Amino acid sequence: MKGAAEVLRRWEGRSGAAIEVHRELGPGLLESIHEHCQAQEPSALGNPVLRQHKVRVNYKGVQLDLGFRIDLGVDDRIILEIKAAEAWHTVHTAQLLSYPKLTDRHLGLLINFNAETLVKGVKRVVNQFVDGA
Q1: Which of 77, 87, 96, 113 has the maximal Cβ count within 10 Å?
Q2: What pLDDT is attached to residue 87?
Q3: Structure pTM?
Q4: Which residues lie below 8 Å from residue 55, measured CB to CB, with a gap of 6+?
């Protein structure tokens, strides 16, 4: 498992990509448009990206195929949950808290592309930090 420094380095790259998409498109478009464009940024840098990636849920040792999908998975460690919502809702934060844990990924980013400035439209969750690696 990678350490905190590696996860945060990867976060910085993703946030820069999100800012680029927001600058280019602006707010007000459909979530799917932002998701597709956001997927192009890490792909252009040679980072693997999975869009609408189907994930099985492990419940008490049983792998369940329940139709659970993450918007974007980057570098097999980071989840990007894309929104184009007028405001944050508690369910958005609940998703962000659950997804990294369910998928054993280290970083979850909730990006609301409908925010006037993207700085106000990003939340992050870090799962299983290992310091000093």
Answers
A1: 113
A2: 86
A3: 0.77
A4: 68, 69, 70, 102, 103
